């Protein structure tokens, strides 16, 4: 090899002088800086660099080594290399099986890259020597810097476990100041490549020593801090303490070096997200306080995950995100009419709310409560509201919820704590103004874990929910823009304070025509599609649907109707699967063929009332209305009243009041006044396994008793409801629409209602429901009996002075006009 130099003596003087060739091969290095007089192993893998080394070793050439500005550059040019590098001599070369090389090179002198003269097959360039600058006036300062550098380096070697003690003696024997700076900078493995390059290209010896001195002081401070941390945690034992020490040590070192770690980046990402989340000032203050607390925790600490999860919830909530709503009343009405038949009162109230909101967007929304039997469309109506407004829709079911934490959340002290369902629903919606439906609010429970219905008081109060505070978040969240809609089957089980916060909209059952429309427009298409059929294969006629409605379902909603339609489709699908490809037309006869005999017969009421002593009444139930029969039987005995049929206390009292009225007015209806001395009266309400209660069967009981005692049957096409008094008055009752619907489903043609329920008839009973039905409004029991008992010519003569009953009817039935004597 040419340009050989002799080994250096300890004083740092050279026995030969190196001269820079006019042109040399240029070897680019990644993340590595080679200093003059230093030996260094290098890995060479680039194809061009491998060729360069092979030719240099073969010809004994000196090469120029320059560090790349960007380590990722695969084919660097002159602009990608630092200006100052090192002329080097290759001492040893090893070839590896994968084609790469391992070489040991020695730096000879600083050189400046003037020009790249060739790039193929490897880089070649012109370089000139970059001599050191040593001024005589700097001698004194250079000597002082040398002493400081040697002293600092000695301490660093003694504190660092990675540096050999031999480095102290080698450094102390170097007298040349430039050589000393190069030797120490080359031996410090903890300083960055850019910093080493800065030392290499500092040609002024005093400036180079000054730069190195500052680096050594900083490195010494880091090592002393690490030693201090080590002494602080030295007494701790166990894995957790050891991990904590290592992380604290790493954190301190990185802080001193100005470098970050994964935890630091994570904290900064959270801080950026918090700034962009649009948090209210109070919430932001609490979140930043928790973030600062998190930044001081080691990731292995138990509290770290708790705090991180809390901040994730804060960031994920829609503090300022809302859906832009478009209020179009015609569109809303169209959507609700298309998806729901009937329910006019509920639809009108929703449209009124939207109209007011359109005129006053800042209004606090009401809390709507849809009350009605199952299957009438309470939940789907709320979904239609969200769809028409363009808002997000969130639904949670409260049925069986007994824990207050389901509403308000758990406190963070508990393992696995989470916010309540309200906050979780808002996170899923990603909007602070969704339509939020609380389903089955009447089925909330309470036990030792708390009362969730009480927790809902704040949620459903427009005056309070703008500062709703979840136990987990422990910061206020504004719920005032949420449109809350609750659903229930009954109101009785809802606590009065909670019921007071809601505007109740009753959704009664559907009429036969409404059910027919729903089946024709929605249910048939849905079930046909679900069962793999199409319109060309099966057609449901209106008569066939009516047969299903009348003969196989007797409910307020349409769920059983949908099941029966699904049963028909299943049987048709089976036929097609067995090879019958004929088009099917669903007629009443076909329905009976598939579903069997009718389960409900319209003639049942007439059959039951053929015998005297049986009257048809109407009852309200949580799943809609129903007809009930009251049977009275007179028998020989000692004047007692027997009541059976699992009657409640109120219903038993109604029976006693009915008997008292009959005994008091026996003469007026040609009944033996002393009948009770030698007879017993038994009143029975069938379906004895079902509990029954309430005052509305009072008129039915009087009618059944009078029918039995006079032996005059009750008309089979008439049903009745109303509370009675001992003075013979008929008082109003509730559930009028449900009861009338049940009567019409049972084939009743005339209905007797209390006079004071006239407003319910006008508001709740539409023309479609009243079609083919006569409503009689009565004020006294006498009027009921005149309407209900058959055999007009056998009606008793009234006592002189008795008032004539006034019967208000929408249609007068021949032979049933009231009369008095």
What does this structure look like?
With 821 residues, the protein is of the alpha/beta class. 42% of the residues lie in helices and 17% in strands. It has 29 helices and 25 strands. A hairpin with a 6-residue loop joins strand 10 and strand 11. Helix 11 runs antiparallel to helix 13, helix 19 crosses helix 21 and helix 23 crosses helix 25. The relative contact order is 0.05.
What's the layout of helices and strands?
Elements lengths: L23 E6 L9 E6 L2 H13 L3 E5 L16 E12 L5 E18 L5 E6 L9 H21 L6 H7 L4 H11 L5 H8 L4 H28 L6 H19 L4 H15 L4 H15 L6 H15 L12 H11 L4 H16 L8 E4 L6 H12 L3 E5 L7 H4 L12 H9 L5 E5 L12 H8 L8 E2 L6 E2 L5 E6 L7 H5 L2 E4 L5 H19 L7 E3 L1 H11 L6 H19 L6 E3 L1 H8 L8 H5 L5 E8 L2 E13 L4 E4 L4 H16 L10 H4 E6 L13 H13 L7 E3 L2 E2 L5 E2 L4 H10 L4 E5 L3 H7 L2 H4 L3 E5 L2 H8 L19 E2 L12
Parallel strand pairs: 1-3, 7-12, 7-13, 8-9, 9-12, 14-15, 18-19, 20-23, 23-24
Antiparallel strand pairs: 1-6, 2-5, 3-4, 4-5, 5-6, 10-11, 16-17, 17-19, 21-22, 24-25
Helix pairs in contact: 2-3, 2-6, 4-6, 6-7, 8-9, 9-10, 11-12, 11-13, 18-19, 18-20, 19-21, 23-25, 25-29
Show unreliable segments: 1-16, 794-821
Question: Distance between the terminal alpha carbons, to the nearest Å?
Answer: 147 Å
Structural class: alpha/beta
| Helical fraction | 40-55%
The best one-word shape is elongated
Largest sheet composition: 5 strands, mixed, barrel
Please state the CA-atom Rg, rounded to the nearest Å: 48 Å
Query: How many strand elements?
Result: 25
* Whole-number mean pLDDT: 82
Strand order of the largest sheet: 1-3-4-5-6
Strand residues, percent? 15-25%
Q: Give me the number of helical elements.
A: 29
